[in-house]
């Protein structure tokens, strides 16, 4: 396993998954509670926490992620929980060639939609999602709201610490560089680890599309979704463009 894979898994372990799933799963489950054996697609599934939770509910789940190490972690997590979602190494851009629908629910969480190359690619992914949904099916996406981020000048995230399977700790510092305003930002992440008494660091960067309320609503409506609701959280809180950092978007076919 590469050093980058190590760091990715340690970052995943820095997340308080118990609290996060407690906040997010009731909303997701409410969308499929009346469907017998619902079919769910989890885009950019990461370590598979949502996929496993949905499978535990009784859904037939496919999770895709571009990271082989994350897919392997998802498979291990599913085995530990005694469920059998299918995990595939693939990019979101290739979902139509990777999976067959139709699905009752498609999710893409953790700001993953903003990590595609450009807005044209995002539009195509959203159109592919629409095609793969059943009539009346739901698409749930969570992305950062860059209108609030630009308005407040937000740059620095709180530091986090995660552990590897051997117990080694890695500390993460993350910040946004808004060098291509208003189109995209660069997420800069530094990972610090202490090995044999000496500190080392690795820096990675990721382009992040600057998505906003009006842009997301336009893209989803252009893809022919019949309804688009944007909330501030998974409890369906009302959304304010300059106050809320997260957009939880529920679109129906």
**What is the CATH class name of the largest domain?**
Alpha Beta
DSSP strand count? 11
Low-confidence stretches: none
CATH architecture of the largest domain: 3-Layer(aba) Sandwich
Largest sheet: 7 strands, mixed
Strand order in the largest sheet:
3-2-1-4-5-11-10
> Which oligomeric form is depicted?
single chain
What general outline do the C-alpha atoms trace?
globular
Explain what the structure shows.
By secondary structure, this protein is α/β, with parallel strands linked by helices. The protein has two domains: 3-146 and 211-252, Vaccinia Virus protein VP39 (Rossmann fold), CATH 3.40.50; 148-209. The protein contains eight helices and eleven strands. Strand 7 (169-180) and strand 8 form a beta hairpin. The longest helix has 14 residues, at 17-30. The radius of gyration is 18 Å and the shape is globular. The mean pLDDT is 95.
How would you sum up this structure in a few lines?
The protein has 253 residues and is α/β, with parallel strands linked by helices. The chain is built from eight helices and eleven strands.
Features:
Rossmann fold; 2 domains; 11 strands
List the SSEs and their pairings:
Layout: H1 3-13, H2 17-30, E1 39-43, H3 49-57, E2 60-65, H4 68-81, E3 86-89, H5 95-98, E4 103-108, H6 119-132, E5 133-144, H7 146-152, E6 160-163, E7 169-180, E8 184-195, E9 198-209, H8 213-222, E10 227-231, E11 246-252
Parallel strand pairs: 1-2, 1-4, 2-3, 4-5
Antiparallel strand pairs: 5-11, 6-7, 7-8, 8-9, 10-11
């Amino acid at each position: 396993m590469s050093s980058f894979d190590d760091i990715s898994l340690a970052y995943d372990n820095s997340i308080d998954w118990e609290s996060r799933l407690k906040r997010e799963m009731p909303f997701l489950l409410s969308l499929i509670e009346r469907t017998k054996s619902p079919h769910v697609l989890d885009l950019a599934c990461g370590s598979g926490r949502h996929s496993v939770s949905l499978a535990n509910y009784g859904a037939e789940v496919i999770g895709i992620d571009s990271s082989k190490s994350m897919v392997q972690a998802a498979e291990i997590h599913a085995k530990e929980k005694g469920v059998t979602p299918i995990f595939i190494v693939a990019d979101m851009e290739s979902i139509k060639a990777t999976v067959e629908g139709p699905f009752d629910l498609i999710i893409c969480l953790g700001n993953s939609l903003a990590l595609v190359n450009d807005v044209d690619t995002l539009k195509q992914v959203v159109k592919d999602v629409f095609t793969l949904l059943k009539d009346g099916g739901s698409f749930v996406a969570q992305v950062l709201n860059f209108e609030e981020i630009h308005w407040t000048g937000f740059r620095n995230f709180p530091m986090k610490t995660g552990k590897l399977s051997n117990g080694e700790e890695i500390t993460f510092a993350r910040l946004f560089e808004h060098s291509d305003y208003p189109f995209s930002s660069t997420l800069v992440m530094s990972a610090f680890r202490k090995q044999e008494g000496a500190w080392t660091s690795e820096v990675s960067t990721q382009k992040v599309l600057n998505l906003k309320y009006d842009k997301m609503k336009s893209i989803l409506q252009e893809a022919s979704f019949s309804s688009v609701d944007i909330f501030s959280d998974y409890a369906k809180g009302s959304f304010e463009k300059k106050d809320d950092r997260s957009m939880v978007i529920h679109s129906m076919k």
